[in-house]
Amino acid sequence: MERIDLHNYEAFFLDHLEGNLSEEGQAELSMFLSENPQLAAELEEMGDISDLSLIGSEATLNKEFLKADPSVISALTVDDWMIDSVEGNLDETQQAALDAYVSQNGLQSSFRVYQNTILNPDKSVTFGSTTELKRKDGLVIPFYAKWMAAAAVILLIANTVDFSSTEDVMTNNEVVLAESILDKKSNVNAETRKLNQIIEDNSTVENPYVIREDENLVDVVIPGEIVKDTIDDLKIDIYKEDPIVNYVPDLDTSSSPKIIPKIILEEDPNTAVVEIPTKENEVVTEEPFKVLTNRTGNLLNREITFTRDRKKETDEYVAYHFKIGRFEFDRKKSK
Amino acid sequence: MTAKEYNSCVDQYADNIYRFVLKHLKNEDEAKDVVQDTFTKVWVKKDTIDVKKAKSYLFTTAHHTLIDVVRRNKPNDGIEVLDKTHFERPLENMDLQEILEEALDQLPEIQKTVVLLRDYEGYGYDEIGEITGLKESQVKVYIFRARKKLKEILVSIEAVIE
Q1: Is the distance from CB of B56 to CB of B145 less than 8 angstroms?
Q2: How many CB pairs under 8 A join A and B?
């Protein structure tokens, strides 16, 4: 028998209206209407001569055959019973009742199809070796530890290969100091050039105050006063605002003892050199691998920073700070 | 659950979980990743898991992990009802179980899940409810809908073959 569907239901409607539908066909139609309730109205419009009862001008369809009691096997409920049977939810009595109904209504093939919907696993499909899934008792390493380990390896490599020289790191104080020294050197050089010019102009006069060999180091010895300038050390000279270059004394060199230029050594106690005072515990924070940590951070989509504190006075590293994402690590040297 | 019990669970259930996941993902590598993630999660929490409920816990974890992967792969899957009508191989060359497996792919993910748990693992409705987070009545509804859908597909295939 042809199965009812959306393309042929009108034929079933007609058979139903004309009373030519078998019990199985009637069951099919009932099931179809329960699944497509909007078509029940269409059937109603077509009119049902046998079940038609006139109430005033309205014709109504006897819908009793559409109603269902789940506890009773009927055309509407038989599918649910079959599924319950397949699911193993029926007791012996219920199963016998279902078998009888199926047999009486020729629903064996439909029931068989339901029975075929039970899936059986293909045991030949296996995970494979389960060794990698097995564990031994021990420390559980959390997932984020992988990122930490990766970062640690990168930092280890970074420490092995010196990507940036710490010698180039200059603090703000040092920059100011260097600028000050350069300005002073510039002044001294200017004064020196002026003095040299005067000497050259009076080339006949032998001037004992100038050492020309080294522009970076101009040491002039005057009794009771020393002026020294160098940019090699982070030191500032005591420097008179009125340097001798502004005034060349009119000396009688024939009678005076000859003044010999003297190279002053650093350790010379007569050298009036004053170091910039630094606080004993002043530290400078350096971020030596900023480029590397930034790039690694971008790769891992985590903020990564590595800084270290250097004691300015001794160049000794006293603290390290490492941050990756929400995790921060500090290591400080004990006092 | 001790390490020994955990390893015993690996032996007992790894293949079952793998088959269950593979039915959904159709990708062996992804399925193995899900199995691995599942067991890793269970290992981390093994001290809080009763070995008697280990299998259920494993399938629950696998199901949640699987949902994440399915959503990542197909954001709309599980919501839309698939309406595939084609099969990858000629029907005449397939046996009933193979046709059924193909028909299974035409079910929505949740229906496929409950049917697989029911048929492959023999879970009760209440257990399937625990694993999937559904009410027992919902599980029944999904299983019934799945069976009807499978039946329709099988009937239509029979009609095609005949």
Answers
A1: no
A2: 80
Report the C-alpha gap between B152 and B103 in whole angstroms: 10
Give the whole-angstrom CA distance, residue B129 versus residue B145.
16
CA A311 to chain centre: 33
Of A86, A132, A135, the CB nearest to B147: A86
Question: Between chains, do A119 and B148 touch, taking CB under 8 Å as contact?
Answer: no
> B65, B41 in Cβ contact below 8 A?
yes
Cβ neighbours of residue B111 under 8 Å, at least 6 residues apart? Answer: B142, B143, B145, B146, B149
Rama region for A309: left / alpha / beta (φ>0; ψ in -120 to 50; rest): beta
Q: What is the mean pLDDT of each run of 10 residues along chain B (162 residues)?
A: 86 89 87 89 87 89 89 59 51 73 86 91 90 88 89 78 62
Neighbours of A7 (CB within 10 A): 7
A120-140, pLDDT tens digit by residue? Answer: 888 888 888 878 787 776 555
- CA distances to A194, A238, A244, A270 from A181, rounded to whole Å, are 19, 12, 19, 21
CA distance A163 to A293: 12
